[in-house]
Each structure stands twice: as C-alpha cells, then as structure tokens.
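Complex 474.
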Amino acid sequence: MGMKDELDTKSQPVQAEPKVKDKEVSAPEDVEALDEMEIDKKRHLNVVFIGHVDAGKSTTGGQILFLSGQVDDRTIQKYEKEAKDKSRESWYMAYIMDTNEEERIKGKTVEVGRAHFETETTRFTILDAPGHKSYVPNMISGAAQADIGVLVISARKGEFETGYERGGQTREHVQLAKTLGVAKLLVVVNKMDDHTVNWSKERYDEIESKMTPFLRSSGYNVKKDVQFLPISGLVGTNMKTRVDKSTCPWWNGPCLFEALDSVEVPLRDPKGPFRMPIIDKFKDMGTVVMGKVESGSVREGDSLLVMPNKAQVKVLAVYCDENKVRCAGPGENLRVRLSGIEEEDILSGFVLSSVVKSIAAVTEFTAQLQILELLENAIFTAGYKAVLHIHSVVEECEIVELLQQIDPKTKKPMKKKVLFVKNGAVVVCRIQVNNLICIEKFSDFPQLGRFTLRTEGKTVAVGKVTDLSSSSSA
Ligand code: GTP
Ligand code: MG
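Predicted structure with magnesium ion bound:
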C-alpha cells in the first residue's frame, strides 16, 4: 500500500514509516544511462496522470512507453496472454504500468507507478496515479511531486458522466492537482475509438464544454494553463503522431507527444535557497534521503541542514533516477546520501534545506482555505480537527480561529465576524499542529505552501499558507 492517510494520535509526531511507496517501472530493455551532459541539456518534468477510475491512465502511460520504444513486441504479447488468462483482455497496455499482481487481477492501480521517457526537448517522469477513491492519498503523493498533469477522461458513453458527477474522481483530482501545485493540465479525452464514441466531434465538444467552466472554477486559467486533445490510449492514436484525417477529419491540433513537448512551465530558480522535502529514507553507506528538489540546487560536498531538527549534514553523493550526478537542480527527483545524521533521526516530512536561508519550522500558521465538502453534519469552526497534508508532511491539525470569510464574487474579505462556514466557503484561519513542521508561504514557494485537509479519508478543504506565525523557531 502507498501512503498512509490518517494519523494514529498515539503514534510518533510525524509518520516515521515511509508514506510514499511508488513502484518503479523499469523498461524490460535497458534504457541507456544518461550522462551528466544530457541531464543538463534537457529540461526535466514530472507529469502525473490523474482522472476517474478506469479512465485509461495506466493504458495511456503504458502506450507512451511502448511508442517511445521502451517495451518490445514480445513483452506486449506476454502481457496480452496474461491479461487474457485473467479475463481482462483489453488491460494488457495497463500492465506496463500496473506491475503488482493485485493491480493486474483487479484492473486497478493502487500504488503510483513511475516511469521515464523523453521527447525532443524534455525528459519526463510519468507518475501514474490510481483513480479509485480509496487510494486518493496515493494520488495526492503523486500529484505533489508533479509539475504538470495529464487529466485522462473517458469519452465512452456513461463513463464521462460518472467521473464528472459529484463524488466522481474527475472533480476531486482536478481540485487536488491545482492545490498541490500542478501548474498545467493536458486534458486528454480518451477512448475516442470506443464504439459508443467513434471519434465523434459532438461527444468531444460536449466534454470540453462541460469541463471548461469546472476547470475555471477550480482555479485553472483555461486559455493559458489547459489544453484539450482527443486520443485513444489503447490503440495509440493521436499520441506519438497526429491522428489520421481518415480516422478523425475534424482534429487539427497537436498529438499528445507534441503537446507534452511544448508545455511551458515557469522555471524554478536553480540559484534559489535549497529545499527538498524528504519523502523517504534508508540506510546505505550513510543515510540516504529521497525527495524532489523544489528550489535551488545540490552538489556533492555541500553542507546542508535537515529541518526542523537543525541537524548539520554533508552531501556525500547525489543520484538522479538511477544515475550518480555531481549536481542537480529544481524539479529533479533525487536520492541524496548524507553524513552527519542517523537514518532514525529523519522522518518523512522533514526538509533538506540550505544553511543560510533555512526553511522555517512552525507549529502555527495562517492560511486561506477553500472548503470543498465537509462530512455530513460537520460544521467548520474553531476546534475543527483534520489531517494536514502539505508537501511530504502528514500531521494532525486543529483550526484555532476563523479570521475572515472571503466573498467568492469580489474575492475580498467580508466585514462581518465569522464563527463558522459551510461547504464551498473561502475562509482565512489560523491552524495549529502539535509538532514543528517546515512549510513556506505560498507566495514565496508555492510547492511548499499549498495543502489539503482530510477527515476520515475524504478531502474536506484545500488551502494556501498566507502567513507563518511569529513563534517560528527558525
Ligand atoms: P485506475 O488505475 O483503476 O484508476 O484505472 P486507469 O485509469 O489506469 O484505467 P486502465 O488503463 O486500467 O484502463 C481501464 C479500462 O479501460 C481497460 O479495460 C482499458 O483497456 C480500457 N481503455 C483504456 N484506454 C482505452 C482506449 O483508448 N480505448 C478503449 N476502447 N478502451 C480503453
Ligand atoms: Mg491505472
């Protein structure tokens, strides 16, 4: 199982167990090792595949690996046979990403699958998130590592509708992705080959026109940050090359590889203060920590701090994917070998930080929250308890004071005093946690300043850190 959702109140301050367990999908044929030069030349983007259960995320991810030459025909034939034996004929492409037996039997992704491929300009790490609502915490861990998202939507009759309904994961995933810092979305309208769709322009337009206002209300600038395109993940149409006019006469836009290639994301500052939230750690000739660099760069020999415990450490080695590198910048998923700290003294949620401009550690902060859907009968007021998910931190928290309610129309604070709010409200409040956590103001480091609140396994609110309390110990 992937990341654990709720905290046991009796347990350690921060979850000591690695919360995020991804499965690395290594292509059967050895992918050539990248040398350092190449790493510097191409940009690197993490792309998370999100969307409702069975939309075709794993199939599309698998097809990408196949089309980029990382899976040979023999392996595909083997998967075809295995899928057939499990009476899941059409699932063979998904087997490239779904490597666990449980996933293959049930046809559902559980753990975030991870794989790599390249286009002209970019090295991509694919994070294939599960769509099933039981695994939303795993989806959150995948989306928290991503720069851009591919939202997969099934065009098949009835499937788009179920995904889009209240309680469907299309909505929840979009809202989570936005909050977790997924800046751009490619919305792929999938299963265009299905007999209920048959590359119908009407169906495609219907989905685009229903999704657009929803994406806008979730905070995406649809013109700038969102691109729609039709594909068939199963057949591989409009993916590596543009769809043929004989199949789809009305599409004049790009194929998926082109769209991925040309996505522009704001460059993170490689010279900024170093920040890498730790998602996992283990012992291996020293202490190795894993995480994604959110700001700055790291180099062999650097002196850094592990926060919030202010432990001084030295960088012995840096690994990017499977390769040892001398230096790595923002956006990279790394393993960093450290001296000066024991593995037991690190918990996931800690942050590897520069010494000079170190990250703050706080037990209280101010945030602007958007309430999504509270549990039945619950009211959101001072004393409300939830589980806070912010970068790799999972902590029980309590709302200590509601400060202001924001008028959704004018986006300005409302005058009257606010004691409680309901679903859909936007509210500024103070939030307290029991243990020191390392976070940032959203305006300084968006990736370290946006979060979700969950109760009983349901996301009840998404928010941004607006102020760190003055009791900061850093
Ligand atoms: P979860 O991981 O459980 O959230 O599902 P998923 O989004 O990864 O979906 P998956 O790739 O496992 O595919 C689900 C089903 O949809 C399988 O039967 C696929 O064969 C089918 N499917 C996926 N893409 C296409 C497509 O482009 N066309 C058609 N006809 N079927 C597809
Ligand atoms: Mg899947």
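The longest strand covers residues 393-406.
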